[in-house]
Structure formats: structure tokens, C-alpha cells
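Ticket #4471: structure export looks truncated?
Reporter: QA, pipeline team
Priority: medium

Steps to reproduce: submit the single chain below to the structure queue and open the exported record.
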Amino acid sequence: MFIIKHRRYFFVFSLVLILVSLFSLMTYGLNLGIDFKGGSIIEVGYLAQRPALDQIKTSLAPLNLGAYTLQPVGDKAVSIRLKELDQTGKDSLMKALSLNGQAPVKENQSSTIGPSLGKELETKGMIAIVIVVLLIIIFVAFAFRSVSYPIKSWKYGVAAIIALVHDIIIAVGAMSLLAHFFGAEADALFLTALLTILGLSVNDTIVIFDRIRENLRLKISNSFEEEVGISLGQTIIRSMNVTSTIVIVLVAMLLFGPVSIKYFTAVLIVGMISGAYSSIFVAAPVLVEWEMWSRNKAVAKIKR
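Actual output as written to the record:
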């Protein structure tokens, strides 16, 4: 009952996190990668020992490439992500990567994404998120159709979406901060991370809602507020254990995994923690707040 009794403090905390995330997003924005802006990815392998990244960057400096990302791949290769190049520009790039012939290289792979394709990916990504959100509302409303008192089934779906919006805003805000301070790029993996957060977060929320539904059916209390509080008490340990297990794995990936998925993993960690928090401290308390508001409104209407 502690969470339900003090729910407004948790609402304020969530609001602060959301405002910080929105401020970061409006101030710093997102550093969109070539998956969205268009550009080239080129991976080259060194025939001998790979030079230090600082040496390679020094060799690339005269080319005025603009913003680019250089990452090691394995022991003898590097991957560079940069603006789209013509053949002359690519030849100059390969020469610079070889330190003007001092460290011979061979091209392992390369790909180019045009601006129109990047825009299409951005549009389809947003459509995918909207579709997921709508399907979640429909699914939750259908799954809880037998629970119509004291709060309508569709309100469970809306409460779940409020929690999901909370998680997505915080995850995007985290990516904005990572972009500003560490140069992280929002690419297709970032979009994958957002969709993963949506799925994992709503799963946690539905588990809690399902326990609320069961306790309502059993009529363990005459107070909806108390029933929700008891339901949270019965599920909170399970939710925290599952989230902790996943976060431990993600932290291991962040520390020991490849550099190419570092920011993807960091966003997932933020999203998982935010998702567990919102399921417990936002979604269920929103139901209680909504039910109390509806009840007070009905009482006021009767008195009039």
C-alpha cells in the first residue's frame, strides 16, 4: 500500500524525468546516423597490424569528411560511417585509411544508404511504433474485457500506454544525452531498442494488471485502492527479479560486448529500468487515481 498511498510523489518524480528528457531532446536533439540521413559504411581490413585509431584519424583529417564514426572491428579491421562519397572521394578515403600506403588495406565490405531510403526507414519506424501502441491498447482492452468494475477495461489499456510513453520519452532523452556527451548516433539499432522496450515494458505491466484482475474477481477487498496495493505487493518482487536479471545481462554486454552495440545496450538498460519503474509506480497508480477521480465526479454529480 506504500506505493499507492504515496503515488503522487512517484508521479512527480516521473514528471521530472520526462521534463529532463524533453529538455535534452529540444536542446541537444538526436544525432541521426546514416540509417536515417543517408551515407556510407565502409569496412577495411589491414594486411598487417592495425594502426592506432588516433593515427588513422590524423590521416583522415585533411579530407574534411565532416562528421564520421570510426570503430575497430576485430583485431585487424576498422569500420567508418560517414557521408555518401563518390568514387574519387572513396579512393582518397582508402588511401588515407592506409596511412598513404604505409599500412596496406583491403576493402571487406561497403554499403550506401541514400537520403530517401533513410527517410523511408524513419517514417516506417514511427508507423511501427504507432501500430504497436494501438495494438497494445486493443489487446489489453480485450484481455480485460471481463473486468468492467470499478474501472472500464479500456482504461487498463490507456494506463499501459501512459507507462509506455513515459518509457519511450526517457529512453529517447537518454539517447539525446549520449549523443551530446559521447557522440552516439541514433540508427536502426536505436529504433530496435525502442520497440524492444515497448514489448518488455508492457509485458511487466500486464502481469501486474492480471493480478489486479484476479484479485478483483476474488473480491479480496471492498476498496479498489487497497486491491491494487495488495496486487502490487504480490508482484513487485517478481518484476524486480526479472528486470534485475535482464539488466545484469545487458550490463555485461555493455562492458564486454562489441563497440558497435554499446549505445544500443545503454538505451536498453535505461529502458528496462524505466519500464520496471513505470509498471509498478505509474501504470497501476494511474488506475487508482482515475478510479478515485471518477468516483468523486459521480458523487459531486449526485449532490448537485
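Status: closed, not a bug. The export was complete when the record was re-opened. Leaving a note from the reviewer for reference: The domain at 39-113 is CATH 3.30.70.3400 (Alpha-Beta Plaits).
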